[in-house]
């Protein structure tokens, strides 16, 4: 698109100054000017830079509607899903600073490698275990049962990694399973159909598990789906502690 056409599309609010992390080896931050537009999201801004100013800019997204969890970045110091974050909500005096998520290796620019994040889901046994002889019929789970309510509270996670990026314990201890994997484990602990609870509770109660959480709530504060991994982890702490007492008595 020509510069004139770009300017014509801009609304009357003028320009945004956008600082984008390009890696220490490339001088750190690079600054771009982007036209402000009505209802513009942070992801719109990054996409406009990549399409119209610098095609080498690397970032990640897929759905653009808050479902896939792939577009998270640090925006003005705060981890966010960028496809559902409006510029008007995140900019500070017309300035936006974009960095890759923390606690994961950077592949390039704003794209991080999420492999360790997903490996921890596996390590926390964050998958349904039907047992060796699953029932043929559908299980009946009452919608108003306490277990169902606990599972419902955490089940809408989109694996975006925002909570993981916000967690200082992950920064201090890279082995820590982290809020998303533990939140997932808690939904499965409350799944009455699951037959893998012993292995799961063993997995989440080790040195890098739920008891390492300092309950400082960053994960819960920043989760774009308004989930509360801190409370899920508190549930795991209760259940694993009770299990130890039972074994000792
Ligand atoms: S509450 Fe626990 S998991 Fe959440 S950010 Fe704090 S230390 Fe990390
Ligand atoms: S718990 Fe929330 S912040 Fe963490 S991965 Fe899931 S949706 Fe993202
Ligand atoms: S692009 Fe899918 S959640 Fe943002």
From TrEMBL:
4Fe-4S ferredoxin-type domain: which residues? Answer: 147-175
The 2Fe-2S ferredoxin-type domain, residue ranges: 14-102
User: PROSITE patterns, per this entry?
Assistant: 2FE2S_FER_1, 2FE2S_FER_2, 4FE4S_FER_2
Give the cofactor note.
Binds 1 [4Fe-4S] cluster. Binds 1 [2Fe-2S] cluster.
Q: What is its EC number?
A: 1.3.5.1
User: NCBIfam families from the xrefs?
Assistant: dhsB
Question: What family, per the record?
Answer: Belongs to the succinate dehydrogenase/fumarate reductase iron-sulfur protein family.
This protein's assembly is summarised as: Part of an enzyme complex containing four subunits: a flavoprotein, an iron-sulfur, cytochrome b-556, and a hydrophobic anchor protein.
The protein depicted here goes by the name Fumarate reductase iron-sulfur subunit
